[in-house]
């Protein structure tokens, strides 16, 4: 199946592309809004990279839509070179430049918070999850469970864990939210598929070793009644959980746990969102879709804050040096660093995109 046929065969792909474009747009809108607020001259606001498809100039700014939907940018006067224009980026106080550069990533994270809060508010009849174990499902086949739902006897103990246990740590990492349990237990198990948990039991801390990952499918967590306060608390807890998931995954990638074949670029992400959208449509439940969208936008926000050349975090790194030194570094050298970083980033994106296309075309 060709890529074009694949695109045309899935209406959900369009939904995924539109949302990905929305994430990019709000990110760049964050930079753009604060640049305008502080009186910086913006030369171009672009969605996408590469050759222009459409462009229109309004006032001093050209708004463009480019061919490759892998990012976007806001081009400000005096951003990458010295400019004598009084409204240039390089003429502004350092604290204003820091806010402008950080605004895009912060807006992404805020959008993620809003999506999570909306999910929790819509599902207000559900119980708010804790880290206390209520009971364990018995080991029965799906048919048996369907026929004997009311007759099932729940288990009070499984692999050393007991009802009433409050899970505090998994493999030495703190558990703050019930979703931490599912992620950490799947991430940090050893070669035989076991993990270690520290629980609070009867007022004491107890370490339970050699727990099978099967416990995750059998464990039922205690829920408390949802209120506006629990929605707000759970919004921040789940967001922190996602943030930690992002940087732990990045650490795993750096340390070699994941290879390039395990990483997805925009094309791979669009495919995942498309599949999730299709599954959500069939189930008439879009919670999973919006959760993955929240994960993506928060992920993009955090990744952009990393102190790497060509990313917002790399620019912030130089701005903090400027704040400490009380004078900017030579813009020529800073532009050189970001140029090299951008070239390397685009090369990596090309490799990952080729891999994603190959997977789509070959199915593996």
Number of beta-strand segments? 10
Order of strands, main sheet, comes to: 7-6-8-9
Radius of gyration: 24 Å
Supply the number of helical segments: 11
Largest sheet: 4 strands, antiparallel
- Broad structural category: alpha+beta
Average pLDDT number: 80
**Order of secondary-structure elements:** HHEEHEHEEEEHEEHEHHHHH
What distance separates the N and C termini? 13 Å
Strand content: 15-25%
Low-confidence stretches: none
Residue share in helices? 40-55%
Q: Give the overall silhouette.
A: elongated
Characterization of the model:
With 364 residues, this protein is of the alpha+beta class. It is 53% helix and 21% strand. The strands form four sheets. It has a four-stranded antiparallel β-sheet, covered by helices on one side. A two-stranded antiparallel ribbon has the order 1-2. It has a two-stranded antiparallel ribbon with strand order 3-10. The longest helix has 32 residues, at 331-362. The two termini are 13 Å apart.
Could you give the topology of this structure?
Layout: H1 3-9, H2 11-37, E1 42-58, E2 61-76, H3 94-122, E3 128-136, H4 142-147, E4 157-158, E5 161-162, E6 166-170, E7 173-174, H5 178-187, E8 194-201, E9 204-212, H6 215-218, E10 219-224, H7 228-254, H8 266-283, H9 287-304, H10 312-325, H11 331-362
Antiparallel strand pairs: 1-2, 3-10, 4-5, 6-7, 6-8, 8-9
Helix pairs in contact: 2-3, 2-8, 3-7, 3-9, 3-10, 7-9, 8-9, 8-11
């Amino acid at each position: 199946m060709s890529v074009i046929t694949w695109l045309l065969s899935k209406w959900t792909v369009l939904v995924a592309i539109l949302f990905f474009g929305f994430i990019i747009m709000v990110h760049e809108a964050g930079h753009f809004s604060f640049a305008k607020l502080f009186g910086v001259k913006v030369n171009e606001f672009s969605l996408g990279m590469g050759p222009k498809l459409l462009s229109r100039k309004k006032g001093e700014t050209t708004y463009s839509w480019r061919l490759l939907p892998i990012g976007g940018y806001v081009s400000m006067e005096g951003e990458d070179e010295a400019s004598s224009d009084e409204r240039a980026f390089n003429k502004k106080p350092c604290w204003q430049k820091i806010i402008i550069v950080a605004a895009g990533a912060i807006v992404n994270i805020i959008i993620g918070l809003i999506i999570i809060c909306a999910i929790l508010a819509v599902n207000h009849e559900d119980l708010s999850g804790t880290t206390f174990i209520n009971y364990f499902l018995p080991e029965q086949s799906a048919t048996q469970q369907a026929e004997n739902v009311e007759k099932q006897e729940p288990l009070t103990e499984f692999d050393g864990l007991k009802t009433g246990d409050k899970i505090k740590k998994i493999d030495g990492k703190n558990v703050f939210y019930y979703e931490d349990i599912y992620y950490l237990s799947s991430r940090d198990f050893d070669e035989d598929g076991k993990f270690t948990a520290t629980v609070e039991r009867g007022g004491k801390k107890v370490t339970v070793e050699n727990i099978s990952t099967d416990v995750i499918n059998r464990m039922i967590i205690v829920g408390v009644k949802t209120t506006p306060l629990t929605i707000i608390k759970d919004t921040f807890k789940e967001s922190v959980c996602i943030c930690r998931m992002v940087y732990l995954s990045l650490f795993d990638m750096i340390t070699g746990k994941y290879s390039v074949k395990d990483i997805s670029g925009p094309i791979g992400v669009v495919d995942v969102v498309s599949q999730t959208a299709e599954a959500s449509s069939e189930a008439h439940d879009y919670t999973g879709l919006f959760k993955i969208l929240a994960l993506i936008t928060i992920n993009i926000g955090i990744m952009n804050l990393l102190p790497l050349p060509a990313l917002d975090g790399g620019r912030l790194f130089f701005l903090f040096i400027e704040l400490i030194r009380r004078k900017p570094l030579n813009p020529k050298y800073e532009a050189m660093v970001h140029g090299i970083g951008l070239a390397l980033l685009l090369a990596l994106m090309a490799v990952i995109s080729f891999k994603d296309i190959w997977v789509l075309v070959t199915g593996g």
